Amino acid sequence: MEQPRPRSRGSTAPASSSTHKPEVVIGIDPSLRGTGFGVIHIEHPHPRALVFDTIKCPAKWPKSRCLVKTADTLKRVIHEYKPTVCVIEAIFYAQNKQTALLMGEARGVCLLAAAEAGLDIYEFSPRKVKRAVVGYGAAQKQAVAKMVRELLCLDKVPAADAADALALAIAFAGQLKTSMPDISNQTRI
Fold first, then answer.
1. Topology of domain 24-185, per CATH?
2. What is the largest CA-CA distance in the chain?
């Protein structure tokens, strides 16, 4: 797992002491062969990445082994970093039924890991995440990854799946920060 080393963003004001405790959020971008995850700590003035990575499974592995590895890895990350909220990518339209089934199975084990840990679970559409992070709902993956790097002051651009997961967590944090009504309109799973 990649432990981020933040770049310096210059001097930043220390977080104000308030009674509101910052939250730890895990973002999950589910896939059978490459599930991205990212855990952030919501801080002032910017969120901070705690850990992010992609759970990779070789093509030769059977589907069941990939699902177990994904669930076990996410359970371990959740146990170690203790997020209170999980934000997962919403199901999107897929023309290929087989792809949709595989995505649903991968998403299911991700939801199970978060639900067993008692996390509040929200889903955001890819378009909404891109709009929240980049400002444009049809942004390319590379644009999202570059903006994630900037927003979290990371040394390098994260891999695509991990960047998407971090973007999910950032979108959630941004809605909390700006008190946008979108959170209350989200389906809590």
1. Nucleotidyltransferase; domain 5 (3.30.420)
2. 51
